[in-house]
Amino acid sequence: MVAEKAARADKRVTLRDVARAAGVSHQTVSRAINGKGEIDPETQRRVLDVVRELRYRPSRFGRGLVRPDVVTIGLVVPDVVNPFYPEFIAGVIEAAGAREWQVVVASTEGDRPRELTLLRSLGQQVDALVGYFSHTDAELEPYIAGVPLVVVDGTPHTGTHAVVRIDSETGIRTGLEHLISRGHRHIGMVDCVSYCDPDVRSRTFLDVARAHRLPIDENWVIVAEESLTGGGAAFEALRARHPVLTAIVAFNDLVAIGAFQAARRLGVAVPKDCAIVGFDGLSIGELIEPPLTTLHLDKRRLGELAVTQLDQLLAGEMPPPVVLSPRLLVRGTT
């Protein structure tokens, strides 16, 4: 009977599932797991055998709550200060709240080794995980020990975990073609290091440039630090390298705003002398003058999609990857 239950397709096993398989009450299972003394040693051994066989993972945060089977999910982001992530986090929390789930938020601070340490710790405390990760599926697996996982905009998908992807290729293509439609031909790109198919943005940029026979090549792409400072330095480098530059596509809005600030310092009028397109659709893009043209991404929706993926994983299903596409939001910088 236990073996049959263990063979089921990775459904989230609850405390009551363990109780049924072991032939005891759920209170007895709780006592066995928590090492309470008021239980027969043989019964405790049997219960713990079933726990291991069914791969039951009690939530430390769920213990002691009124509802013993509350779902707790761990949400991991690279940087809570980056204005992109609070909106994504809000989307996850809202979608989880609608299901009466709890959310524990953690940040890797952009530190790859810390990411794995954090995952090992968090994976022992929650029922499922979702977030941005810089490691491959194979690298992540030893640190999550079978916990259901949704990877957001991660490395190329291998089918091991559920995935929500951002359609960066469509975004870059749309942004560049918008600039071309405005008559620009000398267009640069400020790219940044990304662990999600790291070449997709620059590759798409160059493919579109070739298709439109633009007089640009790899030298028109600069990889910058993902920050205001990085965007500013990259803009200055592009202008110095290519004085005929009339437009740029940036990795994200932070980088684009950094480029905008550098243009102002250099006396370059935006968009008259140089147009700028960002990516992400952050609200701060509306605060500069003129406001930033951007590839707008619904970040709350991204969080909702991630939770929907988790919902299917916890029901024992492996959902297909979901893709969220940005839309062009034309404002004053083009």
Report what the structure shows:
- The protein is built from twelve helices and twelve strands.
- The protein has helices at residues 2-6, 15-22, 26-33, 41-54, 84-98, 112-123, 137-144, 168-181, 200-211, 228-241, 253-265, 299-314, and strands spanning 72-77, 102-107, 128-131, 149-152, 162-166, 187-192, 221-224, 247-250, 275-280, 293-296, 322-324, 327-329.
- Helix 2 crosses helix 3, helix 2 packs across helix 4 (41-54) and helix 6 runs parallel beside helix 7.
- By secondary structure, it is of the alpha/beta class.
- The protein folds into three domains: 2-54, lambda repressor-like DNA-binding domains (434 Repressor (Amino-terminal Domain), Orthogonal Bundle), CATH 1.10.260.40; 72-167 and 299-326, Rossmann fold; 169-296, Rossmann fold.
- The radius of gyration is 24 Å and the shape is elongated.
- The termini are far apart.
- Residues 1-10 and 60-68 have low confidence and may be disordered.
- Helix content is 42%, strand content 16%.
- The protein has a six-stranded parallel beta sheet, sandwiched between helices.
- Helix 7 links the parallel strand 3 (128-131) and strand 4 (149-152).
Label the structural class.
alpha/beta
CATH class of the largest domain: Alpha Beta
Q: Hey, roughly how much beta strand do the residues contain?
A: 15-25%
Under CATH, the topology of the largest domain can be stated as Rossmann fold
Total domain count: 3
